[in-house]
Structure formats: structure tokens, C-alpha cells
Sequence to fold (380 residues):
Amino acid sequence: MPVRPTRAEAQADLEHGEIVIVLARWLLIVVGVFLLILKPASHVAELRFQIALILLLAFVNFFLHAQLLKRHSLPRMLAYGASALDLLVVTILVLSQGGDSPIFVLYFPALVALSVAFEPVMTLGYTVATACLYGAIAATQMPTGLQAAPIVLTRVLTLTGVAFCGGVYWRVERDRRRRVERSLS
Amino acid sequence: MSISAERQLEQEAAEDIFFGQVVMIWARWFLIVAGAIFFLWTAQATTELALGVLPIIALMAVNFYLHGRYYLERPSNMLQILTASAIDIGLVSAIVLLWHSDTVGGRTGLASPFFVFYYPVLLAFAFVAPRRLTVVFTAATAAIYTTICIADVTSITTAKILVLRLATMAAMGALGTFYWRIQRDRRRMGLALTS
Fold:
């Protein structure tokens, strides 16, 4: 049984999984707006930039959601780009608040959503990039008095863990579908 | 509903558990590795280390048992899975509530960095269990975490942190169960098309 999905399989997986990414992104937007509005940042320029990022994400998501509602299949590169944008926005928000920013938890839904929609090799790429980027930011900008390494390592491991679980489940389901197809053919 | 249709649904639910439980097992291994690294790194006294390693050993014992059964093709039933997941949540909650280490700022409750361990457990459970059970399990976990942290919510900033964590925990359950449902519909559609 081939390990990597065929092109048609990968496209079908993306079509079925993209709605999970879109919903996760709406959650990210709602939570992001909530965080920005309730006790906003003290600098206007910082808040302006954060709101602009969230609005950009909302526009992108509306476009993608509209494509799904119209039953148009999404080009793979567009889906990959939008997921990269999600992770980039979360990283920028974390960066603006420092290494111990509580916003890093927004990586969890973003990684879970892409891990069930994309083939595992893509998930691996996104997860490694996120773990390295966040690890570097958190390790270098952790407030003094805290031992950064165990905290950062624990966070990075659990982020990797959820993406890995998504990838394992993706594979379990693909094997189940193939088994059903084989038994019926 | 006819008897054969009912039997088909039962078989489908059993297969969900049979095939899906490996995700839960892997999620627990991640929890064990992350927990072990954290405890070994941050404990500063022998008593602290001895106590800290106890939940890790308990989780390892549970996971060895479940993984062994999986390899023997004698997978666990729903009750065993539910019990193991409840143990995971209980242990993580106990760590969040009680584990105190000066190297991480002596933090428990809302300030404890261990809350991240809830995420893989909630996600893996949502991938395997039916929707109603996932909703109950996720809500119960959120309620436990809120109870542990509520005393630490003393300002808007801390309230924001708690809400953010609860929302993302709920997202683990919601996204997991949503994808579980998509996959179930996909399989059924495949079966209907080929039959």
C-alpha cells in the first residue's frame, strides 16, 4: 500500500478537510478580536497593526469559505498559503507580546486543522517551521526569572503532539477508506 | 431503523474505536515525554522529583497496557478508553493544581505551564469518541480547569488568559469531532456509491 497519497487522493482530502481549516480560522479571528478589544494594547500603532492583521485574515477566510459554499474546489497552493498566513499572524501576535505571550495557544487549532486536511509531509513541514519559529521567539524573549527551556520545550512538544495526532488520524482514515474500496471492488 | 442498519451502525462505532484509539495512544506518549522532560528538568529536591515522576509512571503503565492490547489486535472498548482519558485529565489537573517549582516561577493554577497537556488529550478523544460523549468530555475538562483557575482570575488580563485557553481547548474537541463526522460521512458516501 503506497505511503503517500495519490494526487487525486490529496485533492479529495483537501476538499474534505478545508472546511475544518476555515472553521478553525474563524475561531482564531473571533478569539483574536476578543483579545484585542478587551483591554487593548497601550500603543495605538501596535493595536492598529494587530487589528489590520486580523481583518486581513477575515477577508481571506471569507473568500475561502465562499469558494467552499459555492462548491468550487480550492487550488492547493491557495490552501497552503492561507494556512501559512494563519501561522504567520499568530507568530506576529506572539512576537508583539514577548516570549511568554498567552496567545501561543492559537497555534493549536491552526495546526490541528491543517494536519487533518493536508498530507502528512506538508503537516510535517508546517509543524517543524512553527516549532522552530515559536521556539526561537519564546526562548529568546522569555521574561527574566523564568527558566525558559523546560517551558518552551513542553509547549513545542505539545504543539508537535497535536499535529502528529492529526496526521495519524488522517492516515488511519485513509487506510479505512482504502480497505472499504478494496473490499467492494 | 431495521436490525441490519442498527447492526451496521454498531459495527461502525466499534471500528471507530478500533482504528482510532492509536491516536489516543500516541497523544498519551507525547504527554509522557513532555511531562518527563519537564519534571526531570525543573525538580530541585529529591522528594519533588520522586513525587513528580509518579503521574508519569502511572500514565506510562496505562499506555503500555493499551498499546500492548492494540498490537495484540485486542483493542480497548469504549469504557476502557473513557477511563484512560479520565485518568489523563485527572493527572494533568492534579499537576496544574499542585505542582510547584521555583525554576518556573513557583506557579500553579492559572500560571501553571502544564495546561498545554490538556490539548492532545482532548483532540485524541474527539477523534475517537462519538459527538455527544466528546461534548461532555470537553465541557467537563473545561469545567475542571475553570474550577482550578477561578481563584487566580483577579483582573481583566487574567480573565482574558483563561477565556483564551478555554476557547482553544473547546476548539480541540470541536475540530476533532467535526473532522470525525466528515470522515464518517465520506466513508458512508463511498459505500453508497460503490454498492
